[in-house]
């Protein structure tokens, strides 16, 4: 039996990298995509040495249609099909009140967090549908709760949720689920703690600091495992849902 084939976007670090590692552990062939050059990614160098036949990395900006097409083409050429895609690529900035936000920066946020996903679904949907596969979308609590100075991020994630609902409505041969992963211990959280104090109310900012100080951030390895397991096994009954990582419907996908 051939191995399942999973694509992970935003795979160079953080949640994406952890998802790649978990998917390989679970016996998949994995294609990771990211903007960072492979030569600058020691973790990926190690992965490719350990799994030369089962891991592949594609460097490029997925807001570009040629890069999106190339990612699909390289995956098919190397592994023959696509079973699932974990749509993880995303950015937080700009961090400012709407009145102070640079519009070009806000548009860049939407390009990465929303239009990039739309584009890659458009380019990959035929292959994923052939396998009755899955799209697992990494959403956020910010999609449903306004966070001071996170206007572009919250709005792009809200739009991303609707995109997931639309795919579920339009594509009967694909299962699409949006995951609210909780507050995960990644570089994004470090950015918030180190650089965002000027843009957020003190009490909101302190909440993020306290999560780190009390060791209550979600472990990135747990998130990666949950996403990989969902990409492999999520049932059709979950199609079109936006689910919190602690939801009992996802209990079977948690790392023990």
In short:
This protein has a single domain (5-182, 220-253), classed as Rossmann fold (3-Layer(aba) Sandwich), CATH 3.40.50. 46% of the residues lie in helices and 14% in strands.
For the structure shown, list the relevant keywords.
256 residues, alpha/beta, Rossmann fold, seven-stranded parallel beta sheet, 8 helices, globular
Characterise the protein shown here.
- This protein is of the alpha/beta class and 256 residues long.
- It has one domain (5-182, 220-253): 3-Layer(aba) Sandwich (Rossmann fold).
- The protein has eight helices and seven strands; from the N terminus they run βαβαβαβαβαβαααβ.
- The protein has helices at 14-25, 42-50, 65-79, 103-130, 151-170, 187-195, 202-213, 220-233; strands spanning 5-9, 29-34, 55-59, 84-87, 134-138, 175-180, 241-244.
- A seven-stranded parallel sheet has the order 3-2-1-4-5-6-7, with helices on both faces.
- Helix 3 packs parallel to helix 4.
- The protein starts with a strand and ends in a 12-residue tail after the last strand.
- The mean pLDDT is 96.
Layout of secondary structure:
Layout: E1 5-9, H1 14-25, E2 29-34, H2 42-50, E3 55-59, H3 65-79, E4 84-87, H4 103-130, E5 134-138, H5 151-170, E6 175-180, H6 187-195, H7 202-213, H8 220-233, E7 241-244
Parallel strand pairs: 1-2, 1-4, 2-3, 4-5, 5-6, 6-7
Can you give the mean pLDDT?
Answer: 96
CATH topology: Rossmann fold
Order of helices and strands: EHEHEHEHEHEHHHE
Largest sheet, in brief, is:
7 strands, parallel
Strand proportion: 5-15%
Backbone CA Rg: 17 Å
Q: Which secondary-structure class do the elements indicate?
A: alpha/beta
- CATH superfamily caption: NAD(P)-binding Rossmann-like Domain
CATH class reads Alpha Beta
How does the overall form come out from the CA principal axes?
globular
Total strands? 7
Organism: Synchytrium endobioticum
GO molecular function: oxidoreductase activity, acting on NAD(P)H, oxygen as acceptor; oxidoreductase activity, acting on the CH-OH group of donors, NAD or NADP as acceptor
Keywords: NADP, Oxidoreductase
InterPro entries: NAD(P)-bd_dom_sf, Sc_DH/Rdtase_CS, SDR_fam
């Amino acid at each position: 039996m051939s191995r399942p084939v999973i694509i992970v976007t935003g795979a160079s670090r953080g949640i994406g990298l952890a998802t790649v590692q978990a998917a390989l552990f679970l016996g998949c062939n994995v294609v990771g995509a990211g903007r960072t050059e492979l030569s600058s990614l020691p973790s990926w160098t190690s992965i490719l040495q350990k799994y030369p036949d089962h891991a592949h990395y594609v460097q490029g900006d997925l807001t570009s249609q040629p890069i999106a097409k190339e990612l699909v083409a390289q995956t098919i050429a190397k592994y023959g099909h696509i079973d699932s895609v974990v749509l993880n690529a995303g950015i937080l900035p700009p961090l400012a009140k709407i009145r102070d936000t640079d519009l070009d920066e806000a548009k860049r946020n939407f390009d990465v967090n929303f239009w990039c996903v739309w584009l890659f679904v458009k380019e990959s949907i035929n292959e994923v549908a052939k396998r009755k596969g899955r799209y697992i979308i990494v959403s956020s609590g910010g999609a449903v709760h306004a966070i001071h100075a996170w206007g572009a991020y919250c709005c792009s994630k809200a739009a991303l949720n609707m995109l997931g609902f639309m795919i579920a409505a339009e594509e009967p041969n694909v299962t699409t689920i949006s995951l609210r992963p909780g507050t995960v211990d990644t570089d994004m959280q470090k950015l918030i703690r180190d650089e965002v104090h000027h843009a957020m109310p003190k009490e909101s900012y302190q909440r993020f600091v306290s999560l780190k100080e009390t060791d209550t951030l979600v472990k990135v390895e747990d998130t990666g495992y949950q996403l990989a397991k969902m990409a492999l096994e999520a049932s059709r009954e979950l199609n079109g849902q936006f689910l919190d990582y602690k939801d009992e419907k996802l209990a079977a996908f948690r790392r023990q």
